[in-house]
């Protein structure tokens, strides 16, 4: 059996009992380590499972999946994925490949940011499509995400913005010279994300992401024990003005609040507001949220 | 500490290790049993945890939450929720109440249908807002859900349709006479949902849910072991024509496929199609999905 197992969001204890059973029965265990990160390292997982964990990079999962799937028709093999297995397209690919090889497959679900984002107090059914924000460079500032946010904003829906992760990237020079030297991993922070969004707004000027009139919520390490999880709510401008350490360790995500906003959502998230009064004021005056 | 613990989707083994630790440390354990159902019964959970599990109905969670929260500042109390704790509004209420009482709260996330729906092969980031479909009666056929689906359809996004659950409902007569006699639980099935959607389409006639030109996917017991999970894909008409047993046991959900459709999504879901040729044909000809 080929198992794809969601690890949840934080550490080794977020696996489900069903997932742990599958790991224990597997002769090989891979960890997909490029679309997200756990808050812990490989060695802690290995100690916890009592067996080696093979790191599977993008290259391995996308182009050498037959190696991962080898003998999975005769023995159990597990691929561990941070969050839920259906967060990233590549896992659909490997399941399709397993099917083509006649290998039975089982998915073991877990929390992912796609549902755990509810921790900020906004109702999940009021979220529209999810968007991804990539690192801008001097010459490349893709803004198609802005159109997606606009679609959601126009319907009054919230938007979950997933922030870029660069793992095992090569510099242009190393890439050009074919040198397999990789840059240190980079995770987009909430302040970077917000400054990019404000930059796009200043170019597009369609009043979708106005710094002082747009409410947003930054989340980091959702589900993390005690002090690890950070949720910070405010206008884009307020969030931009916060010191970086306010937002905690990566991974970070941002939610753009939509206008179909219920007063309970405002009250719940107020707990996390940089400035509670301004949070309520913008919700009432700009968002038109009644009952506040 | 007051814990709200997601149980995941299927049975006692879908709890996370972190969740199980919290249950073990709790002096009282409640199970919220009206917004969703597990595939197993209370006694099996009690045997597994080695302690009693108190069933908390809507009345208890919504109006007697202080009873649940009693002494949670001095000892551990757990409220178990099927799926993830942030699926239903009521859990926000009880957390707000705990905050007001100065009781520390911890949420332990898990998979919910909101992210596990990815099992059907459609990409989660292409889903728009989620809608709920309630049981129609002779005189009450609310169709505001149709407007929400329309918003998603017009943007090309997929729609997750959550189907009504009636638990601990009273008949009109018993309600009028104040008799606390409850009807047996009812769970809306995929065929009922689809026939209601087709009924709304025939009234509204806005070509949002045309029986032969709308692709949909029915899901039941997502994440369930082996034969329990059922996924069936086809046009609304094809799904309506399937025998009821094809769809498995409750809970059921339906996805309305949006036009921003990638060929990998079509290929993945084809595995579940009632008629693979027609599935591809509609995806290509009606949805305009290239590369098929």
UniProtKB/TrEMBL annotation, chains A, B:
Database matches in CDD domains: DHP5_DphB (cd11647)
Record SUPFAM superfamilies: Tetrapyrrole methylase
Record-listed S-adenosyl-L-methionine binding positions: 9, 84, 87, 112-113, 163, 222, 252
GO biological process terms held by the UniProt record: methylation; protein histidyl modification to diphthamide
EC number(s) stated in the UniProt entry for this protein: 2.1.1.314
S-adenosyl-L-methionine as UniProt keyword: yes
Stretches assigned to the Tetrapyrrole methylase domain: 1-176
Catalytic activity reported: 2-[(3S)-amino-3-carboxypropyl]-L-histidyl-[translation elongation factor 2] + 4 S-adenosyl-L-methionine = diphthine methyl ester-[translation elongation factor 2] + 4 S-adenosyl-L-homocysteine + 3 H(+)
Pathway note: Protein modification; peptidyl-diphthamide biosynthesis
Keyword terms, alphabetized: Methylation, Methyltransferase, S-adenosyl-L-methionine, Transferase
GO molecular function, one term: diphthine methyl ester synthase activity
Top-rank lineage group of the source organism: Eukaryota
Pfam family, one: TP_methylase
Function of the protein: S-adenosyl-L-methionine-dependent methyltransferase that catalyzes four methylations of the modified target histidine residue in translation elongation factor 2 (EF-2), to form an intermediate called diphthine methyl ester. The four successive methylation reactions represent the second step of diphthamide biosynthesis.
Family: In the N-terminal section; belongs to the precorrin methyltransferase family. Belongs to the diphthine synthase family.
Subunit architecture: Homodimer.
Protein name: diphthine methyl ester synthase
